[in-house]
């Protein structure tokens, strides 16, 4: 499992109500050779030559997409689809279509920059259409034709389909306590029913939406777009896609930036445990900020305030709240709303208001935040399949123990790491135990020998991809370059101010590799 199933990403959820931060000030550690930036400090030039075409994929690599105006009111964008093999082990077999969108206005012959917002399960098409200015500077947009894509299994690209809108609503209103034997049996029964629905409604695609296959799709897109190297900006889980691409196609790596880095060597539980610790720190930071401002519903010290939040959650566990539209808000849905604004400290005032309302018995704002997270609109339609794709991708990417003894032990560790929400992150292994498709991969470090410099960004107060994962990934990659932001929230580029913006834009546009160890305040 990559990220806990409350997935968001910079530009996907946060951009809905985020405002840009303007921060200045940078410090840098010397590079590994003692010079200003180490061996990667010179400008990185694109590699010349023609990238190799994998055997059996010649016709797919030679296809030309038919760009046309997007069906939705997408402004100055063009949309297209490209074909990819369902199974790369059988390139002559069934094929699927992958959805792409690109910006207009770039000069003819401009290189392309692929974007991915994370998830797994978030739509890159939606990211570009809805949040382009948040995730790519004007200078980057002038230099590149920016391309968003929906990875296989996501949204418009052979989507995983499991539950109807009504069934999804019903599932999100359920309250199950897996800490009891009866509750754990109920969790397993629910997971089995859900897996069967996904299998019946999705079909063969369900077994081929793994990250490595999606990364192979990215090389296909690179070739179809006419680029010799892949220029790529990936956020959150998008860094896992980027690392997989670099590992499989190191010679094809162009200018790659991985923001909100994941550590590909971690297993499902290690990821969840790291997130539990990071979210607990973020909750404490929010409580401190809340208590320092006006109209905070908490009182006393930050520790006191966090305890009051825990007491509120315990009340919701015992008696779910009811929203003004009659929907039940159980603890799991409440927690999904609670953590959503933690992805960007610009949104902490909204969390403060949501908690204040909930303390007064009104869960409407918290439910609104949870709906944003789940991709549900005001009409009750789930325009995104992010929850279904999230589960499908994670269950293929790694195995996870599901025996009762291990699950109970993991739950105790998560509760210790995060007394506020750790118990809601537990029992993830049960979700994939009944999955109709077996894992096709296991966690492993990424090294990508021979790749061009890969810039890895980490945020010190990131709750979703803990900062420690960024130096871990940068160390694993032979050409990794670490850039850090001393800030709060998930990811940095687009919200961390001039220092990060200059470092990223300088690399993407001019090939100027940032100093390894650069820290922005």
UniProtKB/TrEMBL annotation:
Keywords, ordered alphabetically: Hydrolase, Signal
Domain Peptidase S33 tripeptidyl aminopeptidase-like C-terminal intervals: 419-520
Record GO terms (molecular function): hydrolase activity
Region (Disordered): 30-50
Keyword DNA damage carried by entry: no
Residues covered by the AB hydrolase-1 domain: 111-340
PANTHER family xref list: 2-SUCCINYL-6-HYDROXY-2,4-CYCLOHEXADIENE-1-CARBOXYLATE SYNTHASE (PTHR43248), TRIPEPTIDYL AMINOPEPTIDASE (PTHR43248:SF29)
Xref: Gene3D superfamilies: alpha/beta hydrolase (3.40.50.1820)
Matching SUPFAM superfamilies: alpha/beta-Hydrolases (SSF53474)
Protein's organism: Citricoccus parietis
Family statement: Belongs to the peptidase S33 family.
Protein name: Alpha/beta hydrolase
Matches recorded under InterPro entries: AB_hydrolase_1, AB_hydrolase_fold, Pept_S33_TAP-like_C, Serine_prot/Carboxylest_S33
Pfam families xref list: Abhydrolase_1, Abhydrolase_4
Keyword hit for Signal: yes
């Amino acid at each position: 499992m990559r990220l806990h199933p409350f997935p968001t990403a910079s530009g996907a959820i946060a951009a809905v109500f985020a405002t840009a931060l303007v921060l200045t000030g940078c410090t840098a550690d010397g590079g590994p050779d003692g010079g200003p930036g180490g061996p990667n400090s010179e400008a990185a030039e694109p590699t010349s030559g023609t990238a190799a075409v994998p055997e059996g994929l010649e016709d797919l690599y030679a296809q030309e997409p038919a760009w046309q105006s997007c069906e939705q009111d997408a402004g100055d964008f063009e949309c297209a689809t490209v074909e990819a093999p369902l199974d790369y082990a059988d390139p002559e077999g069934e094929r699927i279509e992958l959805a792409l969108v690109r910006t207009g206005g770039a000069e003819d012959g401009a290189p392309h920059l692929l974007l991915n917002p994370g998830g797994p399960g978030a739509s890159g098409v939606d990211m570009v259409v809805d949040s382009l200015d948040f995730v790519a500077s004007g200078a980057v947009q002038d230099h590149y034709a920016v391309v968003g894509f929906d990875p296989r299994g996501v949204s418009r690209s052979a989507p995983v389909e499991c539950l109807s809108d009504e069934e999804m609503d019903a599932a999100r209103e359920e309250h199950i306590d897996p800490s009891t034997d009866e509750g754990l049996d109920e969790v397993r029964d629910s997971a089995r029913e859900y897996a069967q629905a996904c299998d019946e409604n999705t079909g063969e695609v369900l077994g081929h939406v793994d990250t490595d296959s999606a990364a192979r799709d990215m090389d296909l897109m690179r070739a179809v777009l006419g680029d010799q190297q892949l220029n790529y900006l990936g956020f959150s889980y998008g860094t896992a896609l980027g690392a997989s691409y670099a590992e499989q196609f190191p010679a094809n790596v162009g200018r790659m930036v991985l923001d909100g880095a994941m550590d590909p060597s971690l297993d499902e539980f290690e990821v969840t445990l790291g997130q539990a610790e990071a979210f607990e720190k973020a909750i404490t930071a929010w409580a401190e900020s809340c208590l320092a401002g006006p109209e905070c519903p908490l009182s006393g010290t930050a520790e006191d305030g966090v305890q009051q939040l825990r007491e509120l959650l315990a009340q919701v566990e015992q008696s779910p709240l009811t929203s003004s539209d009659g929907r039940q808000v159980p603890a799991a849905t409440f927690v999904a709303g609670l953590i959503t604004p933690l992805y960007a400290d610009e949104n902490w005032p909204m969390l403060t208001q949501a908690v204040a309302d909930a303390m007064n018995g009104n869960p409407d704002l918290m439910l609104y935040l949870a709906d944003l997270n789940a991709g549900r609109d005001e009409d009750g339609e789930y325009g995104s399949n992010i929850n279904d794709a999230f589960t499908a991708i994670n269950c293929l990417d790694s195995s996870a123990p599901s025996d009762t003894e291990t699950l109970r032990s993991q739950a105790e560790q998560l509760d210790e790491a995060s007394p506020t929400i750790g118990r809601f992150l537990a029992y993830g292994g049960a979700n994939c135990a009944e999955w109709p498709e077996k894992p096709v991969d296991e966690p492993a470090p990424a090294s990508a020998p021979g790749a061009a410099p890969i810039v890895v960004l980490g945020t010190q107060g990131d709750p979703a991809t803990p900062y420690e994962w960024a130096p871990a990934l940068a160390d694993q990659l032979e050409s990794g370059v670490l850039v850090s932001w001393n800030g709060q929230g998930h990811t940095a580029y687009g919200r961390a101010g001039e220092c990060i913006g200059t470092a990223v834009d300088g690399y993407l546009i001019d090939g100027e590799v940032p100093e390894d160890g650069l820290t922005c305040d």
